[in-house]
Write a structure and sequence with these properties.
The protein is of the alpha/beta class and 167 residues long. It contains six helices and five strands. The chain starts with a strand and ends with a helix.
């Protein structure tokens, strides 16, 4: 599978008042984190649209999400990004296994019950950079950033490696 097929989720903070959106490319494990003021559909639409906007359209094929209310505006997101959006069956987290695994790894940085509203987008970007430069067994001990760059090249997509590596 080539890059461009994403899984998404929402990590909620203390009292469900703050949230961080997670977007993970299925084939490369490349991660983007999105600061959200709350867990509303409007916040998800704004945040995810902004996160996907700089990417080449060839990297925006599909997004698989759970049945969360934050995706109520999925038709608007599909229109803004050109992506096809799919939803998992209720109570079926294994249908987004990459996202679930990554959320577990992210808890090292974003513990359950933490107030996520105190984090800036830049701080979330730094966490994503660290995660994207962490060798992963499933990638043959390469990093998600390396594999993302390789897949972009295979697809003929120009990408600045410094951006993908967070430099």
């Amino acid at each position: 599978m080539l890059a461009g097929h994403w899984e998404g989720d929402l990590i909620k903070g203390a009292g469900n008042r703050s949230a961080v959106g997670t977007l993970i490319d299925r084939s490369t494990l490349f991660l983007m984190l999105v600061k959200m003021d709350d867990s509303t559909a409007e916040a998800a639409l704004r945040g995810y649209s902004a996160a996907f906007a700089p990417l080449d359209p060839e990297l925006l094929k599909t997004l698989t999400y759970d049945q969360g209310k934050e995706m109520a505006l999925h038709k608007e997101l599909a229109k803004a990004t050109g992506m096809r959006i799919y939803f998992c069956d209720p109570h079926s987290p294994w249908q987004r296994g990459i996202c679930e695994n990554t959320s577990g790894l992210l808890r090292q940085y974003l513990p359950k019950g933490a107030d996520l509203s105190v984090l800036s987008q830049r701080q979330l970007d730094m966490i994503a950079i660290e995660m994207n430069n962490r060798p992963r067994k499933t990638l043959g001990w390469r990093t998600p950033a390396q594999v993302f760059i390789e897949n972009c090249k295979k697809q003929g997509i120009e990408i600045n490696p410094a951006v993908a590596l967070g430099l």
